[in-house]
Amino acid sequence: MMNNKIKVIENGNVCSPKGFTSGSIFSGIKSPGQDKKDIGIIFSEIPCISAGTFTQNSIVSPSVSWTRNIINSGNVQAIVANSGCANTAVGIQGLKDAEEMANITSKKLNININSVAVASTGIIGVELPMALMRKYIPKIELSSNGGKGFANSILTTDKRTKEIAFSIKIHNKEVKVGGVAKGSGMIHPNMATMLSFITTDADIDKIALQEIIKSAVKKSFNQISVDGDQSTNDTVLIIANGLANNNKLKDLSSEETKLFSDAVQKVCTFLAKEIARDGEGNNRLIETEIVGAKTTKDALLASRYVVSSNLVKTAVYGRDPNWGRIIGAVGASQIDLNESKIDIFVNDIQIVAEGVAISYNHQSIVIAMGEEVIRFKINLNIGDKSAKAWGSELTEEYVIFNSAYTT
Question: Does residue 142 share a domain with residue 27?
Answer without folding.
Answer: yes
